[in-house]
Fold Chloride channel protein, CIC family.
Amino acid sequence: MKIHNRKKYLSFLKFKRDFQQFGLEKVRSYELILHWLNSRLSRNQFLLLSGILVGLTAGMAGVILKTLVHNIHYFITHKVHFEYQILFYIVFPFLGIVLTTITVQTLFKGQDRKGIGAILYEIAQNSSIVSSVKMYSQIVQSAITVGLGGSAGLESPIAVTGAAIGSNYAQTYRLSYKERTLLLAAGASAGIASAFNAPIAGIMFAFEILLTGVVFTDFIPLVVAAVCGSLLSRILLQEDVLFRFYTREAFNYKNVPYYLILGIVTGLYARYFVIISQKVEHFIQKLKMSPLRRAMFGGAVLSLLCVLFPPLFGEGYDTIKAFTNGDTLLIIENSLFRYFEFKNFTIIIFLIFVLVLKAFATPFTIFSGGNGGNFAPSLFAGGTAGFLFAVVCQQIGFKEVPMTNLVLVGMAGAMSGILYAPLTAIFLIAESSFGYDLFIPLMIVSVISYLMAKRFSPISPELKSLADQGKIFTNKHDKNLLFSLNTKDYIDFQSQTINVNASVTELFEMIKNGNKNTFAVVDDIGKLKGILSLDDIRPYLFSKETDSLSILKIMKAPPAVIYPDKKALEILQVFDDTGYWNLPVVDENNRFIGFISKSAILIGYRQLLKLYSE
């Protein structure tokens, strides 16, 4: 055993010396160990290890953010006298959005792309390469926004943070596009799992929202990442921070009519929420204001809403827990409605206003300069709708209304219709409430709401905004447009070539006089032998040993070749699989024709889309 361990140690020292020969002396010790493990372990073994490390890191980010925001909320809502709380509701939501905007403009140079759309954009447009800044920027921004009362959720920022962690991990260890996308999704699923302590929901989130149309045969890293993230939150988070519901009724098939009606109610509300959010977004974007003034305007609107209706303050999970625990008085005790005589009619009017205005509070928070997502708002709105529906049924005269169950399945219904994620919603509520016997009502409500949402719009709002820009392709219409593109129209026939036997001096001269960034290496009859990019050539530009260099030594094999009869949609898939933006086009005899770029196809698609929409 000692001899075996000594051999491993000597092998590691040799790897370290070889690594340092490439000018990488500044690599951290733990990174060097992982590089060595990557060279020693099989692909599946290293991906499994990677899933664990990414899951733990993303889970810890989620724990830190949830704990920070919970402590701020607890101080504002429990440690301050009511008269001062009103002042807090006026000041802090306004301050949260303004400070977030200042932080984005000063610390993060205006990079404010946020939400699940940010992850989808990086997968579709940036080969799953996420900026390292997003590993901490989303935590800082959302902690300020939601911690000080922004009416949004922490789950989307946590997912973006986890995705950035997974992507940068994969970049550090030079993993392929496919593996990079897998670990990006693993980080996001671990973030969601830690936020809700729901590993299955985290996995469903990755497959249902992030990896739409992407098939992975090796999804074990997703599973272990979600489990690690969930386990970490379970160990470290306090019980009152966890998204947990312990009170509920057993499922009774006689209550199915309630769930059928609630599915329709949440489906209609989800559509209302989406429409209002889009209108508020367009309204704010049209404001001719500086980012800071826009934040001040949005913050003022949000503060006013929070003063009138305190449940709009923050994520709103405390209100949902009050619904399930039967603490109805807690819902209005901090509002101006506390001065009215408490009756069921009062609570009904109050909750109707809360539901209507939640659809305004959330987009004003997010689009005026704050940072957050629609996870928590959709759950809050669904739980409120379920509770309101139960109270109305009781007032009408129905007996034995399953109030707690209606709150729980209402959350799943609204989430399904707003986020277009029924499976995520079903498993999230089932795991969070230990309500696996509620699968039937959860499926009824979620499917009805989802189908209604799909009837109004085939794809989710976040996907639609990217699809309208030509960033992703989501439906048959998009694919038909892509199939109508003629591949030959997007080939650069003026691409520069150099003979494989040419001298490096000739190559440098061609670079000096040309305007291309990528070059094809061909033989005497024009057959493709390899490719070169400026990045490949740059290390040799000022070298004094050019005499010993040859094109053959510098060039590299293309990751893939394109044939002119391939359709644009198939070519885009090759671009996504390889992570490249320029690929060579050859004929059936491997003779070089030219380069084709991903950008050219996307521009052609956008032009065609614009033509069809006019």
In short: Residues 7-25 have pLDDT under 50 and may be disordered. The chain has three domains: 27-236, 253-468, 476-613. The chain is about 65% helix and 5% strand.
